[in-house]
Amino acid sequence: MYTKRALHDLGVTGADFTESERRQLDEAGFYLRRNVFDAGACREMAAAFDALSAIEGAEGGHEVHIEPGAPRVSNIFNKSKAFDRCLEIKPVLAAAAYLLGEIKVHGANLREPLHGKGQQDLHVDVPKHFDGDWWVLNAIICFDDMTLENGPTRVVPGSHHWAPFNCSIVNRFDWQPRPLSEEDKVRVPKDAGAPYPGEVLVTAPAGSVIICNSAIWHSGTRNNNGARRRVLHLTYTRRDLPQQLVQREHLISSTYERMSDVQRYLLDIEPMAAGAMLQSARAPGAAKDWWA
């Protein structure tokens, strides 16, 4: 399997990533696609989130990151079938392949900011070695309406072309910060939690997907009215880069068995053929395949 074949097998076409969306992703670093999921699918995924969050409690998201004030759940495909449909979102796959080339799932994390919580510092998810060196695409899948009052995602349009800012050490891989240019120094905020000039608070109805270049400066914001704001952050990366959650290290047999060939490829849980040309990156010291 390879990305072009995977997208072909899923029926991804040019209509799934329009010229306007391509221009927005290139220039602004993000765009919104509405009506990706209907109300029934949103209710089912939201209910699965609630059930898992009730089980995991304060430890929710422990495989990747625990965030006080914003319940999370990670490793979701081994915990529920409700999110399998998210592996076949045609607009997301088309955009990820355009931005990254050969792709695989990077991470899949559920998140909901609680009333009065959820404010984050501006940050980038991953750095870059040069402009155009894109590492990750983030699809924010909304199960509830994202409004100005319940903690919308904020983004700074065009900032994916700036120097990386406030990137987590765990996502840096072989990247080391370089001295900032005078132009970039001016851009660095004194308070990364404060409003930033030109930022956009993204609003989106339930069923929408916000598609972002993960090099964009962005953050969560405070949920001021307490309305539910459940989302899935589904990220894709290049196949030469490690996954945030190494899927085959957590894989259970029932997950593998229910996945299609394309889904196994995207999750990077398919057995690697001997002599395959497109090998996927493996985390150092990763466990053997469970079927080996």
**CA-atom Rg in angstroms:** 18 Å
Mean pLDDT across residues = 93
- Count of alpha and pi helical runs: 8
List unreliable stretches of 5+ residues: none
Which sheet architecture does the biggest sheet show? 6 strands, antiparallel
Q: How many structural domains in the coordinates?
A: 1
> Which architecture per CATH?
Sandwich
CATH superfamily: q2cbj1_9rhob like domain
Distance between the terminal alpha carbons, to the nearest Å?
20 Å
Structural class: alpha+beta
Strand content: 5-15%
CATH fold name? Jelly Rolls
What is the general shape? Answer: globular
Helix coverage percent: 10-25%
Main-sheet strand order equals 1-7-4-9-3-2
The CATH top-level class label: Mainly Beta
Written as H for each helix and E for each strand, in order along the chain, the element string is HHEHEHEEEHEEEEHHH
> How many individual β-strands?
9
Structure description:
The protein has 292 residues and is an alpha+beta fold. It has one domain (3-267): q2cbj1_9rhob like domain (Jelly Rolls). The chain contains eight helices and nine strands. The protein has helices at 3-10, 19-27, 39-56, 90-100, 182-187, 247-250, 253-258, 261-267; strands at 30-33, 72-73, 103-111, 136-142, 154-155, 200-201, 209-213, 218-219, 231-238. The strands form two sheets. Strands 1-7-4-9-3-2 form a six-stranded antiparallel β-sheet. A three-stranded antiparallel β-sheet has the order 6-5-8, with no helix packed on it. Helix 1 runs antiparallel to helix 4. The longest helix is centred in the N-terminal third of the chain and has 18 residues, at 39-56. 42% of the residues are buried.
